[in-house]
Write a structure and sequence with these properties.
The protein has helices spanning 2-5, 43-46; strands at 7-13, 30-39, 55-61, 74-77, 80-90, 99-105. By secondary structure, the protein is mainly β. It has a single domain (2-105), classed as Thrombin, subunit H, CATH 2.40.10.270.
Length: 106
């Protein structure tokens, strides 16, 4: 699904550089490029949940990523930037992540 309908996007993780560095590089995000696709939540998924009307689901291919998207990250995809609210991995064998299902808020 990601290969057929998705495209390249970026995970923007806050820099791990020293914020006290005189160069001021501590606030620059380090982008990671990944394949992803945006899908909408169903009414059933939204009902009686903490999923906001502003939320969408972004499926991110895990290939080439060394970390799971988390709440300090942002995702840039399709001309929009989203906050990561939550994410969960999909690892059918219990060890190897194949994708991350990200709850993203615009």
């Amino acid at each position: 699904m990601i290969d057929k309908f998705g495209g390249d996007g970026q995970i923007l993780r806050p820099s791990t550089r020293d914020p006290y560095d005189p160069d001021g590089a501590g606030t620059t995000p380090d982008p990671l490029t990944a394949k992803m696709v945006r899908v909408e939540y169903t009414l059933g998924e939204r009902e009686n949940s903490l999923i906001s009307n502003r939320d969408c689901k972004i499926l991110v291919a895990a290939k080439g990523l060394d970390h799971q998207p988390n709440g300090s990250d942002r995702i840039s995809f399709g001309g929009e930037t989203y906050e990561v609210v939550n994410s969960k991995p999909l690892a059918p064998d219990g060890a190897t992540n194949i994708l991350f299902e990200v709850q993203a808020r615009s």
